[in-house]
Amino acid sequence: MIAMPQAVQANPDYTSEIAERTAPIYDRVKNVFSDEEWVHLAPYVDEIERLKKERNAIILAHNYQTRDIFHCVSDIVGDSLALAQRATEVDADVIVLAGVHFMAETTKILNPSKTVLIPDPQAGCSLAESITAEDIIKMRALYPGVPVVTYVNTSADVKAVSDVTCTSANAKQVVESLGADRVMLFPDEFLAQNVAAETEVEIITFPGRCEVHEKFSAKQVDDLRRSYPAVTVLAHPECPPEVLQKADFSGSTSGMANFVTENKPEQVALITECSMSDNLVAGNPETKFIRSCSLCPHMQLITMPKIIDSLTNMTVEVTVDEAVAVEAKKALDNMLAVGRG
Ligand code: 13P
Ligand code: SF4
Known about the structure:
With 341 residues, this protein is an alpha/beta fold. The protein has three domains: 132 residues, Rossmann fold (3-Layer(aba) Sandwich); 103 residues, Rossmann fold, CATH 3.40.50; 83 residues, Rossmann fold, CATH 3.40.50.10800. The protein has 16 helices and twelve strands. The strands form three sheets. The protein has a four-stranded parallel β-sheet, with helices on both faces. Strand 5, helix 8 and strand 6 form a beta-alpha-beta unit. Iron/sulfur cluster binds next to helix 6. Iron/sulfur cluster (SF4) binds next to helix 6.
């Protein structure tokens, strides 16, 4: 029998028809949301599900999306690499990218025949903003013959003048796959330094930073360990090297999620965007998440009402210049051939 919350009367928009239609989703997420939260959420969920059917659409969501989007309406969730990989397998006319703009652009480049929508085109990324195609061309002139690996957190223009892209899940593997003694790894300075610490390949860096991860400090990790001596610390490779040195494990957003699921630590602190902890709580009830909240303002721009607008009005459609897309796809395909390494 399908369970339904009792508080049907609490929100006039939460009709018994909506309760009935959303009951299978409620059944799946009832340990994640309180009844009060669900009564507020269900009308949005119902409308998004209706629009997805009408438009033959699916929603791809990054691990940093809020709990409502992540658990209730997403069809595929994952880190940047998983979203890029899964985007190539999608059988739908419309893809809504619940994440930031470079992810939507990547999806469009890998699926030129699909309509790709982003619910808020202002959802940018400080790393993608930090470098232009002209910067890459200048660096190539400074280091002739040295291959360029760019982080997937870049614009299509930047990817188009790169040899291969990478994500935090496969940066080291991509760098080593080139068989070169020296590689430019742009634009995330900390990711590049963190990869350099693990490889024999000489890495040339660029001064780009993630505005969320650059703020974490080694002192924060020390303080955390003093307060919670049993805590397991996981850090994203966009953090400064001194933070990673103090962490027990470092990996992409999915790498950290898998670590928690597989190792079931008693207490864990994720040194990354804090929606990650919110999303992992549901599947890991035996783990206590110690949170230090650091939200990505760009990721947070994507909301349930904006997804409804996006699917209703088919906005904002993501387009990429064809010549740029062809070149950028070569760099993405080169990365996909390496996979997770
Ligand atoms: P992941 O590739 O690990 O999902 O990271 C993307 C990102 O934007 C991290 O800040
Ligand atoms: Fe960009 Fe940092 Fe936000 Fe990730 S968390 S999207 S790298 S600004």
